[in-house]
């Protein structure tokens, strides 16, 4: 058992942490030799950037207490994994200091921490010993770990023959079941199948009250579900950090939304979308702001060529992660519409928009009739931003109120 008892103590303290890498292997080896010679002569390492070097992690600071979960987010190459490797002692920083109290469980790289030629069972004993458990203590945990990883059949097979998912199962089972004070989890968790990922989240919920967790992920719903503080990394630096998780997630998404061009998915050249707007609203940076619960009228003007009948329009709503959240098959089509100078304008009423806060793209499709092949389909025909003070991660925030108590 860990000897750390207090609830709010700082378990991880990171001060001015920096790590530089070299973009070129030959130069990197040459710098390594130079640093070694300088070290032998008693000199100190050159802390400035030399040619072809860059900061993969630069001046990162944070404190993490028991019961807290820090989300490390940022685009590919931002420096998240490098930071985790420094925290786990796999690589040394060039500057700064890491202080960690207690036992560290880590799931960083696929298969990292396992000896590939040893069996799953032998690896559990090895890892347990590294974490300071006696053989007897590991004996008592063994069955739980194997059962959690669901590897009963394969536990005596060398780890090198495990599938990616099996390695992650074993890695997480060992890291989480060995009573860690600090748990470090990289994106690799996502390699597990849905059943296992759900099981991991349940375990994380259970151990969080007595553990400090550092979690790297590109899945913002997962981050918002688990984390109570965030470091958003960009080119090694903390671009934002703090407890305002929704603000950090907004900033993260904004890094990817600069491209506002719409995407035509399909066209047979009989239909072209010439205008898409929301009645009575103007757009800023291609985005229409709509209040939560508001009723709006969407307007789509299309130009048709060689069509005698009015196309049937369907709409789909996608969130920022491209998950479909709603579809619309507007009723009343064909009745009042007419083709004027080869153009048709659809005014579509959308009542009480209870989508939760955030950005949504609308996909517009025109077909001969409901259910038939599309003439034309375009993503991001319209982008809307729903305004509400509450940031939630389900697609809808429904309008509800108590109308009676105790009958
Ligand atoms: N051993 C290394 N030698 C040289 N450069 C490295 C090394 N390891 C990482 N890098 C570089 O450091 C930068 C940060 O990489 P890192 O893996 O930490 O990013 P990340 O934020 O984890 O990215 P991802 O989201 O893709 O996992 C990248 O430019 C990467 O190429």
Automatic annotation (TrEMBL):
<dbReference type="Pfam" id="PF00005">
    <property type="entry name" value="ABC_tran"/>
</dbReference>
<dbReference type="InterPro" id="IPR017871">
    <property type="entry name" value="ABC_transporter-like_CS"/>
</dbReference>
<dbReference type="InterPro" id="IPR003593">
    <property type="entry name" value="AAA+_ATPase"/>
</dbReference>
<feature type="domain" description="ABC transporter">
    <location>
        <begin position="40"/>
        <end position="260"/>
    </location>
</feature>
<keyword id="KW-0547">Nucleotide-binding</keyword>
<protein>
    <submittedName>
        <fullName>ABC transporter ATP-binding protein</fullName>
    </submittedName>
</protein>
<dbReference type="InterPro" id="IPR003439">
    <property type="entry name" value="ABC_transporter-like_ATP-bd"/>
</dbReference>
<comment type="similarity">
    <text>Belongs to the ABC transporter superfamily.</text>
</comment>
<dbReference type="GO" id="GO:0005524">
    <property type="term" value="F:ATP binding"/>
</dbReference>
<keyword id="KW-0813">Transport</keyword>
<keyword id="KW-0067">ATP-binding</keyword>
<dbReference type="InterPro" id="IPR050683">
    <property type="entry name" value="Bact_Polysacc_Export_ATP-bd"/>
</dbReference>
<dbReference type="InterPro" id="IPR027417">
    <property type="entry name" value="P-loop_NTPase"/>
</dbReference>
<dbReference type="InterPro" id="IPR015860">
    <property type="entry name" value="ABC_transpr_TagH-like"/>
</dbReference>
């Amino acid at each position: 058992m860990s000897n750390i008892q207090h609830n709010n103590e700082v378990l991880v303290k990171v001060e001015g942490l920096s790590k530089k890498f070299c973009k070129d292997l030959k130069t990197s080896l040459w710098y390594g030799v130079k640093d070694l010679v300088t070290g032998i002569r008693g000199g100190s390492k050159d802390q400035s950037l030399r040619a072809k070097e860059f900061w993969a992690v630069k001046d990162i600071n944070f404190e993490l207490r028991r019961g807290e979960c820090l989300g490390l987010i940022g685009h590919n190459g931002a420096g998240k994994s490098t930071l985790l490797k420094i925290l786990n002692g796999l690589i040394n920083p060039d500057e700064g200091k890491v202080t960690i109290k207690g036992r560290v469980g880590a799931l960083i790289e696929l298969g990292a921490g396992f000896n590939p030629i040893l069996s799953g069972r032998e690896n559990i004993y090895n890892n347990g010993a590294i974490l300071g458990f006696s053989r007897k203590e590991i004996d008592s945990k063994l069955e739980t770990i194997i059962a959690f990883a669901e590897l009963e059949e394969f536990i005596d097979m060398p780890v090198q023959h495990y599938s990616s998912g099996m390695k992650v199962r074993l890695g997480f089972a060992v890291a989480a079941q060995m009573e860690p004070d600090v748990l470090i989890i990289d994106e690799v968790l996502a390699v597990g199948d849905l059943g296992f990922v759900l099981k991991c989240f349940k375990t994380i919920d259970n151990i969080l009250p007595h553990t400090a967790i550092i979690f790297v992920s590109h899945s913002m719903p997962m981050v918002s579900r688990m984390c109570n503080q965030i470091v958003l990394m960009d080119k090694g630096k903390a671009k934002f950090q703090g407890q305002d998780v929704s603000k950090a997630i907004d900033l993260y998404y904004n890094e990817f939304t600069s491209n506002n061009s719409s995407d035509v998915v399909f066209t047979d050249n009989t239909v072209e979308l010439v205008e898409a707007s929301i009645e009575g609203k103007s757009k800023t940076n291609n985005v229409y702001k709509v209040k939560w619960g508001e009723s709006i009228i969407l307007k789509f003007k299309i130009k048709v060529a060689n069509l005698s009948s009015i196309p049937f329009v369907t709409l789909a709503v996608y969130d920022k992660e491209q998950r479909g959240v709603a579809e619309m098959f507007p009723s009343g089509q064909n009745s009042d519409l007419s083709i004027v100078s080869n153009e048709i304008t659809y005014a579509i009423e959308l009542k009480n928009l209870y989508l939760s806060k955030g950005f949504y793209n609308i996909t517009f499709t025109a077909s001969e009739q409901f259910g038939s092949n599309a003439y034309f389909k375009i993503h991001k025909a319209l982008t809307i931003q729903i305004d509400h003070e509450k940031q939630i991660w389900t697609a809808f925030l429904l309008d509800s109120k108590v109308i009676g108590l105790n009958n």
